[in-house]
Amino acid sequence: MLDLSKNPLFDLNSRTLSVDERVALSYARARLVLRSYNLSISDVQSFTPKFWAMHLDPILPLDFGCFTILAAHLNLTVGTIARYLPQQPDLIPLVKSLLNLDTVGVFLLSERGHGLDAFNIETTATKYKNGFILHTPREEATKFMPATTPAFGIPKVAVVMARIIVDGEDRGSRFFLVPICTAKEMYPGVTSTRLPRRSGTSPLDFSMTSFNHVFLPASALLGGSLDAPTDARSAWWDEVWRIPYGSMAVAAPLMQGLKHVAYIGAQYSLRRHVRVHGPTPVPIMTFPTQQLAVLYAVAAGTILDVWYRSINLWTTASSTAWPWW
């Protein structure tokens, strides 16, 4: 396990910073973490122990904005693209840029009008000559809510789910690779509207993203097939196969955070003294009510950590090995 706590980026008191300064710090920390672990394409695709070790780094509960960037970037964007590298090796330079966080990957699936029913998304990619026209047909089809602004000096690229339309026929939903912004500005036809900050969380530049007749080359389609699936729902689940793993990753910093809380609570309970019946102060850890709370947190953190690591081993064993890489 790496010791990132000694790095100056994690020694800053972010509570004294402005919202935008905190967001910028989260991006800088995410880049530091990813470069420190130096993950390969195979690590991401095959869920190696090194891949899960990054998610379980005890530094991540200190900045959930940083973890949010990493979780979506690696699990959803890089993981989705990596599946198609054997058929589209021209994407390898992009994936290497993503793994170095020189470029941030964004996963645009759900829409303002389609969250849990994302199978029914409305964004379209209409076949046009040697490419596609990506378009948001109405406000409810705006992609919600990954961070897509150029405000923090990092280029962003997205995997965008859209319905393929060929000669007026709906061929089902597929992922397209779409440049979102440079380090300074949005690409033509792409609009990002930043959402208000959510209270009680690490801030990020969460946004609503829409497309106005954006031309995409044929190579933007991940997988390349224009055929309509025989089973549209099964095909859709196959497209979004990384989501269950991404959902599992979200629990990692929460369990590390529980262990942090248990340690802090135990140390405080040993240090804090009060007078009870006699003149000599005693630590509040001597009270059964305090012992129960601390020991419960220690037990829960330990058991969940063992359980989570066993699930990690299952994902590694069940993944497809990549002998070509």
From TrEMBL:
<protein>
    <submittedName>
        <fullName>Acyl-CoA dehydrogenase NM domain-like protein</fullName>
    </submittedName>
</protein>
<dbReference type="InterPro" id="IPR012258">
    <property type="entry name" value="Acyl-CoA_oxidase"/>
</dbReference>
<dbReference type="InterPro" id="IPR046373">
    <property type="entry name" value="Acyl-CoA_Oxase/DH_mid-dom_sf"/>
</dbReference>
<dbReference type="GO" id="GO:0033540">
    <property type="term" value="P:fatty acid beta-oxidation using acyl-CoA oxidase"/>
</dbReference>
<dbReference type="GO" id="GO:0003997">
    <property type="term" value="F:acyl-CoA oxidase activity"/>
</dbReference>
<dbReference type="GO" id="GO:0005504">
    <property type="term" value="F:fatty acid binding"/>
</dbReference>
<dbReference type="GO" id="GO:0005777">
    <property type="term" value="C:peroxisome"/>
</dbReference>
<dbReference type="InterPro" id="IPR009100">
    <property type="entry name" value="AcylCoA_DH/oxidase_NM_dom_sf"/>
</dbReference>
<dbReference type="GO" id="GO:0055088">
    <property type="term" value="P:lipid homeostasis"/>
</dbReference>
<dbReference type="GO" id="GO:0071949">
    <property type="term" value="F:FAD binding"/>
</dbReference>
